Amino acid sequence: MANAARAGERVLRGIPVSPGVCRGKLLLLARPQDTTIPRLKLQAEEFPEQIQRFENALVETRRQVHEIQRQVSETLGIKDASIFEAHILVLEDPILLDEISRMVVEQSINVEYAVQQFVEKYIATLSASDDQYLRERAADLRDVAARLLNNLLGRSHEADLRHLSEQCIIISHDLTPSRTALLDKKMVLGFGTDIGSRTSHTAIMARSLGIPAVVGLQDASHELVTGEYALLDGYNGQIIVNPTDQTLFEYGQLVRKQVTLQEKLLDTRDQPAITLDGVRIALLANIEQPSDTEAVSASGAEGVGLFHTEFMFINRNTLPNEEEQYQAYRQVATTLKP
Q: Whose CA is closest to 223, among 4, 28, 17, 1?
């Protein structure tokens, strides 16, 4: 009877965070294993080695995050890459190094244990905050801390999702922003997680990648099985396991409606923006870098309403000089004249 029940159509509901519909086999990612680190009593002569190991792990973690940021900048743009500035700031915060070093010396403990205790305290504080933004930053801190501890302990990082052998829908308890940023959207059709919200960095990254996603599914990572066939609805926040022919037909119609809507939008792209009572509206786009002008033209916008020039200063070691800024502005002006 249990197998028969599993064979029927089942619906799991969550929070839609990235629109789209996809269907395929599920791939469940294992929940993070218990990362409780034993507390070891150290001798004074061991302190320097512990602190040096910590400094080395910080350097390697910063290198990894910078590399992720570079890849995201190249594929999605500087705005999405700037999400990882917060990760880098944590790793470069002198308070982190000073506090961990102090804990090692004053408590005579191993550095891994000190890092875990330090991070868990701050994650608990952020998670208990009434501010939604601060609660979601706990996920960013957890992401950085996991990478740092892996480097300290010499553990392999989570499975590489950039080299999957077949297309799938990923189901996980959670996906960190750094892991989401590197998903291969040709192979990852969509993803669903037990926890999360619309404004999390993971959700923002999914929308930028154009990958349908549903979060807040609660126990999906326990209820679902790798290899099951499912449909993920990023519009309404549902995962439908073993969808019936009728369900597939209905969603086929939904997808066709979305395609038709996009086609209609393309048809009206080059028409003037005039309200029903005859008022002419200037339709302008926001850009972050000169290369964004291609998207401005493709969307039918008449020009640029806001150039986020601060992004020219982000993710680089030196300030852009006057000539570099002039050429950037000139390129935009020339491409989008008049």
A: 28
Total Cβ atoms within 10 A of residue 164? 16
d(CA 9, CA 214): 18
234: Cβ–Cβ under 8 A, 6 or more apart, which residues? 16, 17, 18, 19, 20, 21, 22, 190, 212, 213, 214
Phi, psi (degrees; rounded to nearest 5) at 64: -65, -45
Contacts of 288 (CB under 8 A, 6+ apart): 77, 78, 79, 307, 308, 311
* 11: confidence class by pLDDT, cuts 50, 70, 90: very high
Chain centroid to CA 151: 21
Local structure of residue 291 (DSSP, 8 states): G
What is the spatial distance between Cα 290 and Cα 324, in angstroms, rounded to a whole number? Answer: 11
- Quick check: helix, strand or coil at residue 57? helix
**129-149: per-residue pLDDT in tens?**
887 777 778 888 888 888 899
Burial of 106 (0-12, 13-18, 19+ CB in 10 A): exposed
